[in-house]
Amino acid sequence: MGLDLTPSQSRQWKLLQFLARLAALSVPIYIIIAFAVDLSALQLAVAGNSAWLLGIMGSQVTQEGALVSAGDFSFIITQDCTGWKSMLLLFGLVFAVPGVAWRKRLLGLVIGLPVIWAGNLLRIMSAVYAQAAWGMEAAQVLHDVWWQLGLTAIVLGTWLLWMKPLRLRPFSA
Fold this sequence. Notes:
Blueprint (H helix, E strand, L loop, with lengths): L6 H19 L1 H8 L5 H17 L4 E4 L2 E4 L2 E4 L7 H13 L5 H33 L1 H28 L10
Antiparallel strand pairs: 1-2, 2-3
Helix pairs in contact: 1-4, 4-5, 4-6, 5-6
């Protein structure tokens, strides 16, 4: 584009590009919410993985669709319990960084999305075990408050780790 920018202006320009791309890449979240896109296949996958994990950890588990029962505790994997927003956020962060090769972006997703999937399953497992140990209120606080922060940290941490080994400095001159 041939702009004659100072190093400070160049950093600000790259930051502006990043923020504009991230804003544009967040549009699918709003489309999915606005049009009530059916994520039942994702719900069933998370419910199946949760039931499997609880089973190998020694719980008596049954699953009927998105309803999972572990002992006397039953829970439903809703669309919001699938981690889809966290996965889309990582996608947006990886693709918003300017000047990165497609191969490196895809590598970030191939590694990062399973990390977020596992973090989401850990969120569900910990809520189930918190309910068994301390009751429903503790499980809800853990699931609804602490793990929202936790999944955000996992997404941002995964993104920062992806950038560090690649020696990406998207906002440097």
